[in-house]
Amino acid sequence: MQSFILALILSCCALHAAVVWQDPAALAREDKGAPAPPFRFDREETGGTSPKVVVKDARGVTWYVKFGFEAKPETLASRIVRSAGYFAPIAYFVPKGQIQSIPAGNLKRADKVIDEASGRFTEARFSREVDFVKDASWTLDESSIKGSRELSGLKLLIMLTSNWDIKDPNFAVVRQAGQPMFAITDWGQTFGAPDMKTHWNCRQYSDITRSWLDGVEDGHIYMRFGGKMSNVVTNGIRAEHARWLLSRISGLTEPRLKKLLRSAGATPEESACFSTAITQRITSLRLTVPAAAASAQR
Question: CA-to-CA distance for 126 and 130, rounded, in angstroms?
């Protein structure tokens, strides 16, 4: 009983001290580099929709390895989100590799993506182990940050990346750079059409860019978002909040995006298409902000 009470007190303290945004430089220092082979099998994870295993690399670092359709979009989204000062798991795209010491007959879903005899795999997302605050969670209505520019910035990133899978299990409080952070932990269902529940589809992502901003009124930006929790995701975003986020992501130029896309395993065609589409979405937001400011002054 005493241990339960202590855990509850610690989680409450962490929740009270948590922030939703940090200096990106502090988050960047947490990234100690790409996973280093050889990789040694630890166990298979059975949750979620994609096959996953847990491995340790040559330096003893624990990585959660996800295979399948989320590997590319999650790697790209994590880089964009972290560069803006928000939490996403540190992720690397590994085009091919080998996992050692897999016990015979041990794999279940992962046997479709890993050759059990050789341990060889292709196209995987390696995500560094996350330090979760036990029994602590939050929502986009969290009172301590409600109405803040930092929360609005996170909402805008959800829509910038078209992350339609916003649901309670993907919210957590984590320790990052010595600071408890409100976190969204899954960014795999991104860069598609939220209302169609697709991902990594540049044509659909580009089509939505033409209409993702619905207008401005009284200093608030109204946006179209067909993903989960759409009402709360689109609510309460002010023009000054958008200007603040735009200053945080000013480094996401088209050449920078192409570099991030290559590191996420994008093909040359995907890199060209997505870098243009993401740049267009950022530009449309930038052009909308002065209109919102002018509307607020009338």
Answer: 12
Contact 159, 233 (CB under 8 A): yes
Residue 8: predicted pLDDT? 44
Q: Quick check: 213 and 284 in contact, CB under 8 A?
A: yes
Entry pTM: 0.92
Average pLDDT of every residue of the chain: 92
Q: What is the pLDDT of residues 231-254, one digit of tens each?
A: 999 999 999 999 999 999 999 999
- 8-state DSSP, 183: E
Q: Which residue's entry shows tokens 């988050």? A: 27
Cα 249 from Cα 245, distance rounded (Å): 6
Sequence-ordered list of residues with C-beta below 8 angstroms from that of 3, at least 6 positions apart, any chain: none
Q: Where are the domains of the chain?
A: 2-128, 149-297
- Angle CA 222–223–225, to nearest 5: 145
What is the reported pLDDT for 295? 46
DSSP-derived letter for residue 103 is: P
Tokens 């295993």 found at: 53
Q: Residues 32, 92: contact at Cβ < 8 Å?
A: no
For residue 164, report the phi and psi dihedrals to the nearest 5 degrees.
Answer: -85, -15
What pLDDT, on a 0 to 100 scale, did the predictor assign at position 1?
Answer: 55
Structure-model confidence comparison of residues 252 and 50, the more confident one: 252
Residue 266: per-residue pLDDT? 98
CA distance 241 to 238: 5
Q: State the number of CA atoms in the 13 A half-sphere of 270 facing the CB.
A: 17
